[in-house]
Design brief:
heterodimer, A: 276 residues, Rossmann fold, 11 helices, B: mainly alpha, Methane Monooxygenase Hydroxylase, Chain G, domain 1, 6 helices
């Protein structure tokens, strides 16, 4: 076989592999023309995006661009705000979470959320904080609860630090530990997607690094969507990044590509701080 | 309002431009010295060392900017490219030194026909000038021209080698010294082309496959 023929065959094989990979790539969440309002304020405009399964996707953009609203639409938390409404489609595993008859509570169990400030239930122990969601879902079996609490705390990289103080109040932990406790609480109900709304903004660099390591490890089992103001954090933890501006999706792509060579001028200006 | 990082980027740019001027001068002087049969080894070695030190300074500043400001997008591409371009300019210095060293190895070469080397030298000098202009102006078109110019130097070198191989009875001293110098010029031309590739990368983010 001539060298050129061999090269041609290799090229063909490579393109086949790429095409198979492309078809195997699974989207966990897809939005189509998603719009959101607070009263008359139109905060999300026709946002269509495909979020890959078992990846961390970062949502970046200036304050007020609709980042938090976007992720709150993904698990139907947006509608909890008085005067808030949305339109469009949010598909979770190809099923519209806004379809008639879909229970928002079920959606929120499948799509958990971690907030900016750690918010453990103040009157509950570490153990009860993690077990709360399970108990609400009717699980009473102590052994089952024990196993779930341990597993969730281990997944949240917190077990070794709190295993001897499970009865202590959740609020007695440090800020970073409290945030990981909230992550453990979200993980306990075995969600498929974890939404994180600036989870490190109230944490010191050490605690932040722990959460970032945690995000990297969670990707194996969950799909993570993180809203962050910290672009370096987005670059560190995410596989894909979406840049939002004034409620619109300006650019979405692989994190490395977006941070090294953004396609849109607006993204370039935002990333390099030449904005406004 | 200027960004803090801009002060550092400007410093970096100026350092690379200093290197550009010095490297152009170093290569030109070494080629001219060879053609005119002058021994300028010491001076050229000094400049080549200066270029090497400047390259270290560029790397240090680039790393400092990355550590301090964590640049992204065009800022990151510019810093990365400055490191590559500075390396290219330091290689110009090194090859200029190698060219001047030929005098030390072979001594008097006044009987050799230097026409081919003079022509290839002019082309290499021109390529350096074009690469510097392309970098200074971020001119993608000029940067793109460097590939074609490089082909001229490549062909001159290969033709010389082929002709020398087919004429074993020629003056060995002239043949070997000429081959060495053309090889150095060919490498200089390659690095000028790489500078052009860096310009393309800074402007568009595109990477060209190296030959």
């Amino acid at each position: 076989m001539t060298l050129s023929l061999q090269l041609e065959k290799l090229k063909h094989a490579n393109s086949e592999v790429a095409s198979i990979r492309g078809t195997m790539e699974k989207f966990k969440i897809q939005t189509e023309k998603l719009n959101a309002w607070f009263g008359n304020n139109h905060v999300l405009k026709d946002l269509s995006i495909n979020i890959k399964e078992n990846e961390a996707t970062a949502i970046i953009g200036p304050s007020g661009c609709g980042k938090s609203t976007f992720i709150r639409c993904l698990n139907r938390m947006h509608e909890l705000v008085p005067g808030a409404r949305s339109s469009g489609v949010v598909l979770l595993d190809n099923a519209n979470v806004y379809a008639r008859g879909i229970d928002p509570v079920t959606v929120r169990r499948r799509v958990g959320m971690v907030f900016q400030k750690p918010n453990p239930f103040p009157t509950m122990s570490v153990y009860d904080n993690v077990a709360a969601g399970l108990k609400l879902n009717g699980i009473r079996d102590h052994q089952k609860l024990d196993r779930a609490v341990k597993r969730s705390l281990e997944l949240a990289f917190l077990w070794d630090e709190v295993k001897t103080q499970l009865d202590k109040s959740g609020t007695s932990l440090s800020g970073g530990q409290q945030q990981r406790l909230c992550i453990a609480r979200a993980l306990a109900v075995e969600p498929e997607v974890i939404l994180m709304d600036e989870p490190c903004s109230a944490l010191d660099p050490i605690a932040t690094a722990k959460i970032e390591e945690l995000i990297a490890s969670l990707k194996d089992q969950f799909t993570v969507v993180i809203v962050t103001h910290n672009m370096q954090q987005a670059a560190r933890v995410s596989d894909s990044t979406a840049f939002l501006y004034l409620g619109q999706l300006i650019e979405y792509g692989e994190t490395t590509q977006l941070f090294e060579n953004p396609t849109e001028e607006l993204t370039e200006r935002y990333l390099t701080g030449k904005f406004g | 309002m200027a960004r803090l990082m801009d002060i550092g980027l400007e410093r970096l740019r100026n350092m690379v431009l200093d290197m550009a001027n010095l490297s152009e001068n170093t290569v030109s002087t070494s080629i001219d010295a060879y053609v005119q049969g002058k021994d300028l080894r010491e001076r050229i070695y000094g400049w080549s060392e200066q270029l090497r030190m400047l390259q270290d300074e560029v790397s240090e500043l680039a790393v400092e900017l990355i550590a301090r400001y964590q640049p992204v997008a065009s800022d990151l591409r510019f810093i990365k490219s400055c490191m590559e371009v500075a390396y290219g300019f330091s290689r110009f210095g090194r090859y200029a030194h190698d060219i001047s060293d030929v005098f030390g190895i072979f001594g008097d070469l006044s009987k050799c026909d230097k026409t081919t080397i003079e022509q290839a030298g002019d082309q290499a000098k021109n390529m350096i000038r074009v690469s510097i202009k392309a970098f200074t102006e971020r001119n993608v078109e000029l940067a793109g021209n460097l590939k074609k110019m490089d082909d001229v130097v490549d062909n001159t070198y290969l033709d010389f080698v082929r002709k020398s191989a087919s004429n074993p009875l020629g003056d060995l001293k002239c043949t070997v010294s000429g081959t060495l110098i053309l090889r150095y010029l060919e490498r200089i031309a390659d690095h000028a082309t790489y500078v052009g590739e860096s310009v393309l990368y800074i402007v568009s983010g595109e990477r060209t496959a190296r030959r």
